[in-house]
## 1
Amino acid sequence: MAKTREIRRRIKSVSNTMKITRTMEMVATVKAKQCQGRLKGALPYSQAISGIVKRVVAETGQARHPLFRTSEKPAKSLVLAISSNRGFCGGFNTNVIQAARSEVSRLKESGSAVEIDVSGKKAAAFFRYIGWNPARTFTAFDDKVAYDAVEKVADDYISRFTSGTLDEVRIASYRYLSSSRQEISVTRLLPFEPAAAGAAASGGRGVFYSFDPPPGTILREIVPFAVKIVLYTLFLEAATSEQIARRLAMKLATDNATEMVKELKSRYNRARQDQITMELSDIMGGTAAVEG
């Protein structure tokens, strides 16, 4: 009797857990769709802004903007790790942390002094645990990423880069490729790379453009804005990837809980049958003793 009672308790406990994971899966699914909508709205804008910069540089050859400055051996680098504030998202945070640690180690080996910034409580807690004290920790970025908040971060990076106190800024984060594919990556934010995907510009040879205002003025105004949009898009991609990872993790947890309940119910039925058999045997034995 005690055995069947214990199995019933376990069935109830696992069933309650399954309800929680299923609910979390549904919430993550809704949030993932919302994040995908925001990302799809921002991507064309980001690509258009970067395209303008690439076109101006390709057509005029003027690439003297301060944010294009490169250093063969950067003396001071900054790595921003974009993790999450909450867990239950599989290997999302672990992969971000690992990518950031690898990038920091690589930069230090090259002789650069490295500063680390962290977005998300999970990575911040880990780095503090291992003795890496992040220079700044951002916890306001969740599934709803506000452009104004990202702009303040980008403005600080741009200011420090143009003043020479930073030689490069790299972002360790998840990149959204499709609803079924997200990859961890380290993206160089600064110095900005206007010709990183200049194939579209090269295809326009023989076509001449007249710029008004002059190209230098265009670059001076639009390049900082392009950097901000790139950083904003990276935060959106990370938020979308986080929700997809959480949805998958909760689905797997729900599936595992379902299989466990089935197994426990099967064990309960076997234990109940054994108990009934023993009770029948006792009754039959008692009846035989009385008749004898």
## 2
Amino acid sequence: MNVAVVILNWNGRQLLEQFLPSVVRYSSTQATIYVVDNASTDDSVAYIKENFPSIEIIQNRSNGGYAKGYNDALKTNSEDIFVLLNSDVEVTRNWLTPIISEFKKDKTLVAAQPKILDYNNRAYFEYAGAAGGFIDKLGYPYCRGRIFNTVEEDIGQYNDTKKIFWATGACLFVKSKAFWKVGGFDEDLFTHQEEIDLCWRLQSQGGNVNYIGSATVYHVGGATLASANPEKTFYNFRNTLLVILKNVKSNRVWWLLFIRFMLDGAAAIMFLFQGKPKHFIAVAKAHYSFFVLFPTFLKKRKKYASRIKYYSTKSIVWDYFIRKNRTFKNLINLY
């Protein structure tokens, strides 16, 4: 089973200098390492050529974001497994071994992720992915080990292998044939939520997505877009609506979108009370952009919408803010 570790870069010379050594040290005997450059204007490519001549460089002509950047680059790759790795991730010894073994053992497995811990606070899970992703009935994503902004300490509670709904794009293992069978990433999403959309489509084709806790990486998080950046708010709010429209099959999708618009409005007002007017504007722009893209995603809906059960809890908002259930263990005992 051939493996490609593929790192997307855009003006990330400093991150490459900091994190490439661990990737080369702990991956080169099991995988071919690629850096995909999204038309950087810094000296990233020159740095790689000079210091890591064993790394293959794929140069994209434009910065098409996460989705298009990977789609363009992966067309040239023939490996069986793609490992899409953020440039701000430190990998560990033997991090590839248990996940590759799981792919060999389980033929239904099409995507996976390792345990994602916080690079700057190593005893805790990291926001983006933690111990595997899920979605509630209203389309809100959350993770084992992270619900909204509450992050759990890693005390071995998630050292298992478990079926999940989505694997994080920070460190995403995916079978190449399955990836292309469902059309790769949706480039209209540009960045954020594209891995949820991908995993949704992979499962609609009968594949499984797993979290494999015997493999560990450390993620900085927010190196490209910090959580305080209104641009991140824009993409998260807009793309959540687009992913719901595209993938939820039944007519209840219209009720679901209506509820989400109301909740988004409440969140926008909360941003104002918190003194974050730029985030309020970002939510408004997200809704406007959703309607601009509505005809395009309505067409995609006809092709991709499926009736698979996507949610594992009723309302993560209700459980978290009203019932005060802040850990995954408490959530799964409710239903």
## 3
Amino acid sequence: MPNERAEHLLHSWSRLEAAVGGSIGTEPEDAVLRLCCEPRFAEFREQLEYCSSVCTLLRRYGRISDEYALCPSDSMLDLLDTVLHRLEKPETVLDVMTPLSGLLVADEDTNVLATMDHMKARGLSHIPLLRQQCVTSVFSVETVFQAVLDGRITVGSKTVMRDLCEYLPLEKHMNHEYCFVDERTDLLTAADIFEKGHTRIRKLKLLLVTVDGNPGSPLKGVVTPFDLKCCTAQK
């Protein structure tokens, strides 16, 4: 039994080194150092260093009378399983986003006031505008506010999104920003993007998820800061 646990530890450690090399692009001997520099694994730093010392000892001296000198604990084996799972199958924006099928969306021919009623009913502040499933802009109440404030457009019962084209480009939004990310973006990176996109002047409101992060690719879903908070609260 002690030998089996030691072999389990060494096997898991070898998997970890290989996974780190594939994910971060580093040599096996630098695995722990590089892994601990990753924010999503910082909480495991001391434990991983401990595991590294144990594995080094087991590898260097091998067995005495066909037995390993150390028998890893359940906690150590569970730790490596946890780190391996997070490294090999990290949670991504796909796990928390609202998919396209669940979104309220519009196009250039959609009625503005009717859309605002739907947004109010669903508690939405921003919705994507699409053309052939690709994002052309994002509509919000702020869009109408800008148009009315300028005094050049009267928003009435027949106003459609196309009539607000001057105010719809993403860079035209006064206080809000939007960012495209690819579907492989992990949740820690997504949270960091939101944090860096929040300033006193502008706030990042949505992450627009496409397969490759390209604005010209079809939209797969959206992520809000609230989505990330809910995910964290559930853990």
